[in-house]
Structures are given as structure tokens and as C-alpha cells.
Amino acid sequence: MDLRKDAPNALSALRIALVPVLLWLAWTGHPTAFLLCFAFSLSTDLLDGYFARRFRAGTELGAKLDSWGDFATYLAFPLCAWWLFREKVVSEGMFVIAALVGFVSPTLVALAKFRRISSYHTRLAKAVAIVMGAGLILFLGFGVPIFFRAAVLFLLVEAIEEIAITAVLHERRTNVPSIFAALRIAREGKAALAIALALFGFAAGARAGGVALPDLVPAVSDISVEFDADVDEGDVAEGCAAATTHRDLLRLSLTTENLGAGPVELGNPMCPDCEFNPSVVCGNPLFECSPAGGHNHAHYQNFLRYEVVDPNGIVSATGGKRGFCLEDTDCGKGAHAVHTCEDQGINPNCSDTYPSWLGCQYVDVTDVPDGLYQLRVTVDPLQQISESNEDNNVIVTPVVIARTPLFDHSLEDGALFLKAEHQLRINADSADPLDFSVPDFDPTQNGATLVVTDVGASEQLSFGLPKAGWKRVGKAGDPRAFRYHGDGSDLDPCKSVQLSQTSLRLRCSLRSQHERIPLPVKGDLAVQLLAGAHRLCVDFGGVTLRNDTSVVKRKGAESGSCDDGQ
Questions:
Q1: Phi/psi at 104 (nearest 5 deg)?
Q2: In Å, what is the CA distance from 24 to each residue of 16, 30, 39?
Q3: Gap between the terminal Cα atoms of the chain
Q4: CA dist., res. 449 & res. 463, Å (int)
């Protein structure tokens, strides 16, 4: 046995033998082992080609084994991915389907023409194997889809090259490195070149079109709870409220911005006069005449989902508002408003805003008990709109529902430090000890919410402090303090919070949210820590200071007290 000459064939045979192993690992639920085995299988694909070129050991049998190894591996992989990573596969459904088409179509074309699978092993195919393998591992193993999406576009170009090679060849050939080599073999001259250029022109056009996708990002503001409210009959008809009277409503304003390079184009809904045809499905079945109060126009359905989620992750209430009229409400510099309710969509760098006072712009929380919750807003929950980034379609904001005023405790003295790099530090002291025996106070059981308000600008930030980050200091029945530790990231901005019976110390990052609190701060700040039945409050007023280039310090600030209710 000549190891150098037989090594490529052995590696290809090993890759075929690994297919049952991949299937078994996926079926038995071993995602890490599966990805490691898949990465090893990809390495054999690279090595067999290297050894074949290095030792000039390429043979007809080797080409067949390599092709069958590739075909078997990539045929089994979608099934394995479906067993192990179903949610991720569904989330990237468009790209997954494109990848399957790009993989299967060259083989089907070759079978139709030559009655045998193709074994071209082009240079582009080898590059695609590397890029696609890395993209799949990063996507499935680490939740980073951008490289997988790029690899799919690369795969489609490679698939078109293989189809072009099949088109220009008169008979089946193996180891054809590129379309240009196929043209030399076929000696078809201008006709073959025209076919190739046309196919590559189509690929370039498809790739350019694929890049210009929208990217929808939601932003929530003006959150409030309106108790014992009346709503319009249209709201009830649209499923937003259970009745027209005595409803508790969690209201919000929502802005959906298109940060992508391409527009959202929904077009003309083709509706009758919605004022006289409420709830009628329009000529375009994706639209419906909205009967909700203040609307009476065509709504694109299933565009948004509003949910109120309890500390255990259970959805306590869902908003009935399913649709929006997508139009360019506001546009940034260089962008132009073109879309209306008669020609719906959102241009790049434009946004669509629905204020909180509109009909259905709320969640009916009448049957939701008092407590701390999260408002979760999802744009395009059914993924009906193709986007360049589906990972930023959800925004979560802490909210509190309290039908009776919370137990208030005003922190009488304190200091605020606000650094120019957007670091918020609060040190507040109380003369009277806090009562930790109040029922449901323990943040290790129920979590807490930190609310910071720029009084002058009327802007507010909310930081969720989940129960998992809290630790009790002292005895279980008689704690001395509670401490919270976060990582300071965009999802967990508060690095540390310490609440003792006489003080509140906290340090949070404003880097990801500082646009909501314009800096430098020129007005007063109000801080509330909501934990169970407690609302701990401190107002930092007195002298108005700035933080243009240095740290702002406010000491001995005038004491404040919480307002009743919300």
C-alpha cells in the first residue's frame, strides 16, 4: 500500500463513513459532539484534495469518492440540523432553502445531461466548503448567522458556475477547476462564453439584490398604565380588549425604524373604503381594514406582537394589535418619505411611529395581578418580511403594574456621579432604616426594576434586575442587605447594585441607552428602585450642573418623595 497515493481515497472513504456517525449524534441529541465531528469531516475534505495535488494521486475513483463523500455529508446535514437546531433552522428558513437549492441543483442538472453526478471539484467549490463549514458552525454552535448568510450567497455563485460547466461540456469530465477550463475543453468559443457570462451576470444580479434588504428595529417609549379605562368598540372588534369599559391598559408608543440598506415594499393594499367596511380582508390578503379607534384604514397583518411576561418567563397577557399601516412617518438625513397607507412600506433610514393614545396601542392587563413584569415587543414575529438581520426584532422593557400605591420610602440624602463616558453612579442614604420584612419585598425571589428619569428632558430609562443576579446578605429571615451583580453589557447594563437598610449604591452603564438620556445632563434626575411592594425614591435636584468633559457630582441634594400611584 502506497500511503501517499492512497491517502486521498482513504480520507474520502472516511468522510463517507462519518455520515452514519453524524446521524447518530444528531438523533441522540449531542450537539457539541456533532459539530466537532462535522468540523473533522470538513477537514478530511480539504486534506484529500491537498494530498491528491501534492502527490499527484488524483484518479477517477478518487474523484468519485470525493463527490459521493460531499454529496452524502451535505445530504445528511440538513436532517441532522433539523433534529438538533430546529429553531435556528426555522429562523433562517430563506437562507436554508437557498443553500439546499444551491447544493442540489448542479447535481440534478448534471444527472439530467450526463446521467451521472458532477465531479468537477472546482477551486470555487473548495473555497465554498471552507466558508460554508465555518458559517454553519458559527451559526449553529454560537448563534452568529451573518457568516452563514454570506456563505449561502457564495454557494449560489458556485452552483451557477457548476451549472455553466455542465452546459458547455459535451461529455462528462472530472476535476474541472473552473468555467474557463471548461470553455477551453469544449472549444465552444463565443457561444459558450456568452452562456457563461449570462449565468454569472444572473448570479451577480441575484447577489446584489440579496444584499439590499431592510432591517426593522423596534423602539418603545411613553409606557404607562391606565386604570379603569374605556375603549372604542373597534378595539374590541379587533381583539385588543375584552370589553369597552373598566379596562386596565398598559399603553406604549412604538417606533419601527428601517436600519437596512433596502426598503420594505408592501405596496397597495387594494382595500375598499375602510371607514365603511371594518374588518374586511382587502384585495391583498395580507391586509385588513382596521376597525380600531383612531385608525379606519388598511393594516398589514401580523406585523407586531405585544406581550406582558412575568418574572418566570410566562406570558401573562398579549396585545390584540396585529397590524400596522406601514408608512414613512419620520426620515433621517438623506432619506425621503415615499410610503403612505395607500402604498405601504418603510424606506431605509425612515421609521413608522404609532403614539400611545391610538386605538389598540396597548395590552389589556385587566386580569393581570399587580407586580413586576417585562413588556416584550416583537416586530415581524412570523418573519414574513426578509431582513438582513433578524436578531434585533425583539425589545424587552421592565414595567410595573400597581393598582394601589406602592409602599414609598424616600431616600433623604445622596450623591450622584455621572461620568462623561456614560457611567451612572448613585449613592443615596436614608436616616430611617428600610423595612425588609414587607411581604414580597425580597428581590432574590421577584427581581427588581431600576427607573431613571431625566426630569428636564422627560426621558426615562428602565433597567431590569432579574432575580438570578441578586444575593441576600445575612440571615434568610433577617437580611442585612441585598446585592445585585451584572456584566455591564447592553442586555444587563447594571454592574452592581447594593441595597442595605440605610443606603442604595448602584453603578450602571448608559453606553447602549444614552441617546434616551441626552448628555450632558442639564436638569434633575429622579431614581426609583421598584422591588415588590417597595418603591425607593430619590430626587437629585438643587444646582443644575453639566458633564461636558468631567465628572458631575451632586452632593447634599434636596430630598424628594415619590408621587402616589404610577
A1: -85, -35
A2: 14, 9, 16
A3: 83
A4: 6
8 Å CB contact between 269 and 289: no
Phi-psi region of 304 (alpha: psi -120 to 50; beta: other; left: phi over 0): beta
Give SS3 for 268: coil
Identify residue 544 by its one-letter amino acid code: T
DSSP H or E stretch at residue 506:
strand 503-509
The series of mean pLDDT values per 10 residues for the chain, 566 residues long, is 66 85 88 87 75 58 71 83 85 87 86 79 81 87 86 89 85 78 65 49 47 86 86 85 92 90 88 84 84 76 88 86 80 87 90 87 91 87 87 86 74 74 80 75 82 71 84 82 86 87 86 62 74 76 53 61 50
| Phi-psi map region of 198: left, alpha, beta (phi>0 left; psi -120 to 50 alpha) | alpha
* Three cell numbers, residue 411: 431616600
Q: How many CB atoms lie within 10 A of CB 370?
A: 15
3-state secondary structure of 486: coil
Distance from C-alpha of 250 to C-alpha of 255, rounded to nearest angstrom: 16
* The overall pTM is greater than 0.90: no
Short-list 424, 555, 543, CA closest to 488: 424
Confidence at residue 355, expressed as pLDDT on a 0 to 100 scale = 87
* Cis-peptide, bond into residue 520, ω within 30° of zero: yes
**Beta-bridge partner residues of 498:** 483, 505
pLDDT the model gives residue 207:
43
From 521, 486, 500, 491, select the one nearest 427 (Cα to Cα). Answer: 500
Say if residues 258 and 350 touch (Cβ distance below 8 Å).
yes
Q: How far apart are CA 149 and CA 202, in angstroms?
A: 19
Q: Which helix (H) or strand (E) holds 129?
A: helix 123-142
CA angle 24, 26, 31 (to 5 degrees): 130
235: three-class secondary structure by DSSP: helix
Backbone angle region of 302, left / alpha / beta, with phi > 0 → left and psi within -120 to 50 → alpha:
left
What is the chain's percent helix, strand, coil content, to nearest 5? 35, 30, 40
Cα angle value 445/537/224 (rounded, 5°):
80
Cα(452)–Cα(454) distance, integer angstroms: 7
Exposed/middle/buried for 268, CB within 10 Å: 0-12, 13-18, 19+? middle
CATH class of 3-211: mainly alpha
Could you tell me the three cell numbers for 481?
442587605
Dihedral over Cα of 178, 179, 185, 190: its sign: negative
CB atoms within 10 A of CB 209: 10
The residues near 342 (Cβ < 8 Å, ≥ 6 apart) are 268, 269
Best CA proximity match to 485, nearest among 501, 507, 470: 470
Taking a C-beta distance cutoff of 8 angstroms, is the pair 39, 32 a contact? no
Residue 147: burial class (beta carbons within 10 Å; 0-12, 13-18, 19+) = middle
Give one DSSP letter per residue of 86-109, joined into a string: HHHHHHTHHHHHHHHHHHHHHHHH
Q: How many CB atoms lie within 10 A of CB 535?
A: 21
| DSSP letter assigned to residue 74 | H
